[in-house]
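Sample A.
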Amino acid sequence: MNLSQRYDRSVEHLIAQTAERTVAAILHAWSEERDAHIVITGGRNGSAVSKSLDLELFRGTAEFRDAKSGKTPRALHIWFSDERFVEFENSDRTDTTLIENIKLTRNLITFHRVSPPSRGSLNEAAENYSKQLKENLGDQRFEVVILSLGEDGHVASCFPDIPDSLESGSPAIAVWDSPKPPSERVSLSLKQLAQSHQIYVMAFGESKREAIVRSINEASTSPVGLLRGSSPHGNIFVLTDLN
């Protein structure tokens, strides 16, 4: 994959641009008469992206709401880059907030959620998410993947010092010892995340400066470097407000 860095001192502008480009990719998939699949991250960045994406998609689908157009949109599938292995009602859960942020276009979207502990073990949750990916995505690529870069250089829940999370060939993986609590999570693997036309990695704030340098320079060992090496196709854009 091609790797490039995009700078803007306005985080809001970078997020708005990402939402615009994501919606353009969604509409392109629909124009080819196929469902669109995207991945979004959790946390503060994911929350901001989900709100911007909802508004931009609402604007972009105006023609579908016009009864005279006779056009019907395809489905949009939203996958979550990773999820903490807790119950749906637990405040540590990240996908709940993202889903609640999407109000205007919810009827167009199928949300794919990691199953909670009450429905099986951590390994079973990862296997179930892998099964969902195989059944719904198949050999198709994600239109867009949106990730956040951690201070240690991790993306999704693929951490630099946990080899299993970096090297797995499964679509989704069980993470038992995340450095940040809660320790048990389900994450899309780097191999699966790499199967995308466009990947946006958000790295905002001074605390991310060293992680950006490592991600770009340590091409063979950093999670972003391994992500880049997992596919010959597509583009990775590291978005930052650091000059």
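Sample B, a different protein:
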Amino acid sequence: MNTIEVRSLTKFYGDKPALDGVNFSACDGDFIGLLGANGAGKSTLIKCLSGVLTPSDGDAFFNQHSIVRSRTYCQLKVGYLPESPSGFEDLTAAEFIRLSALSHGLSNDKQKKSVTTVIEELQLEQISGLRLADLSKGLRQRVWLAQALVHNPEILFLDEPTDGLDPIQKVALRRYILEIARKKIVIMSTHILEEAEAMCGRILVMNNGCIVKDGATQAFLDAEGHLESSIINYAS
């Protein structure tokens, strides 16, 4: 059983707290939606949990291992899709996914099989030899998702995963994520409330660097089955 325990997680940019004492826990099977206005702290929280940023105070524990003191252990457990990903522009899609596999400890036949599998599952065969610089925003987004999934992580952090995708691609990607997420911990930031309604079993609403509401998605829905009215009330 994989677990996350977030304890008083705080992050300052200068003298301004982007995260202000965040606390929550999660375990296998939890699909959590992070909701809130721009600047609420969603991306900062995901960056601290994925080890991209070091918290100013507090900690997060993956299977009782500290992200501050045992970052390598934690990052090997994690797949991370950043918001509006960029970089590695001169690598082909396949090279980039292979690099992620190697960095997460996969090698030889296991690495080759994992790269081939994720390319097939995300339907990237036709563009696998193209450089990231030459891909559309939507295709680049799918390649970055592939690198987050290639090592079959137990914990998955997704920051606006369907950004840049057309409606058909969004539906297909949501179904794919739901299928692979059944035995993982997934924490997903999204501005698309319909996406949270369809995918997340639990909602964390953030405002001014704090979690202001945490509960089952069902508890947030209005009479029409939508999140909008509740989220506006908590996040404003």
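Observation for Sample B: The beta strands are 3-13, 16-27, 31-35, 57-62, 65-66, 78-81, 155-159, 185-189, 202-207, 210-216.
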